[in-house]
């Protein structure tokens, strides 16, 4: 590839370490993710989903803010477009200077997923941007959990060869948006997938995993570990506590700051866990 940005995901795979990738929902998440990574003195991925861009009415403001924070960080930090569902958003992300993108064609028929992902790879690699794709749909985005879905190793190898992606999200037992950490990772399948494909593997829906399962997933061969819901639970809990402790609060900074701090503390803790 013609990649010019440092690639944290490849570096993590080579070092056999997990790399935490956390979702930016509000500006404060981006601040907290960088603060947590700096406290842990470890690299980090800030990721912005298509849905988060929709929430903000567009990708540009939140992406540029995240890029500014990543650039100013004292640790390696990259900004990634997460779960992009159309090529136009990928084009915008590339023009804004994001470091990597995920094109999510997991709900498409296999041939269409291959063809569209291939075109995204061509566009991105020409601009030094790395591409993550998904094969075997990690459910839960629509509220329907499907932890039984599995990515087949032979199909994963064929998909990587046919598309030229730089990393691959696989279905190995997790599901998006779980609010309790009770999922388990199919470790033997992770081992088979890691042996079958050369590119780093990405775990989505990692909020459903306990600390022990997160460590086991990395040891089995997962590299980029995506976490969103778990941090949002802590953020919202801290905001709720602050609001109930003082019902006269008016300044949003007084109740949002505790949420931001709760996220920073947990990001630092999880990054250390994944790197251990
Ligand atoms: O792409 C984002 C992740 O897969 C986050 O999933 O909210 O279940 O942690 P989660
Ligand atoms: Zn995801």
General description of the model:
With 276 residues, this protein is of the alpha/beta class. The chain has a single domain (8-275), classed as TIM Barrel, CATH 3.20.20.70. The protein is built from eleven helices and eight strands. The chain has helices spanning 8-14, 27-40, 50-55, 60-72, 87-96, 110-125, 153-163, 187-196, 211-220, 229-245, 252-275, and strands at residues 19-23, 44-49, 77-84, 100-103, 130-135, 167-170, 201-203, 224-227. An eight-stranded parallel beta barrel has the order 1-2-3-4-5-6-7-8, surrounded by eight helices. Strand 4, helix 6 and strand 5 form a beta-alpha-beta unit. It is globular. The two termini are 30 Å apart. The protein binds glyceraldehyde-3-phosphate (G3H) and zinc ion (ZN). Glyceraldehyde-3-phosphate (G3H) is lined by residues 23, 82-83, 176-178, 204-207, 226-230.
């Amino acid at each position: 590839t013609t990649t010019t940005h440092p690639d944290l995901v490849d570096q993590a795979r080579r070092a056999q370490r997990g790399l935490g990738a956390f979702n930016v929902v509000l500006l404060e998440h981006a601040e907290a993710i960088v603060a947590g990574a700096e406290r842990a003195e470890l690299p980090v991925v800030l990721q912005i989903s298509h849905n988060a861009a929709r929430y903000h009415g567009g990708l540009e403001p939140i992406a540029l803010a995240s890029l500014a924070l990543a650039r100013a960080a004292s640790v390696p930090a990259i900004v990634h477009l997460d779960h992009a569902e159309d090529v136009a958003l990928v084009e915008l992300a590339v023009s804004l200077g994001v470091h990597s993108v995920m094109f999510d064609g997991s709900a498409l028929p296999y041939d269409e997923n291959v063809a569209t992902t291939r075109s995204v790879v061509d566009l991105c690699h020409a601009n030094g941007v790395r591409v993550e794709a998904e094969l075997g749909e990690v459910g839960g985005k629509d509220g329907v959990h499907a932890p039984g879905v599995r990515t087949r190793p032979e199909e994963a190898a064929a998909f990587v060869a046919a598309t030229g992606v730089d990393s691959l999200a696989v279905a190995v037992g997790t599901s998006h948006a779980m609010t309790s950490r009770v999922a388990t990772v199919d470790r033997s399948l992770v081992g088979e997938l890691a042996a079958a494909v050369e590119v780093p593997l990405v775990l989505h829906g990692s909020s459903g995993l306990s600390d022990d399962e997160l460590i086991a997933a990395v040891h089995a061969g997962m590299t980029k570990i995506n976490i969103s819901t778990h941090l949002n639970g802590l953020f919202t809990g801290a905001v709720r506590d602050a609001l109930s402790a003082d019902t006269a609060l008016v300044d949003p900074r007084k109740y949002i700051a505790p949420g931001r701090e709760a996220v920073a503390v947990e990001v630092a803790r999880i990054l250390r866990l994944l790197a251990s």
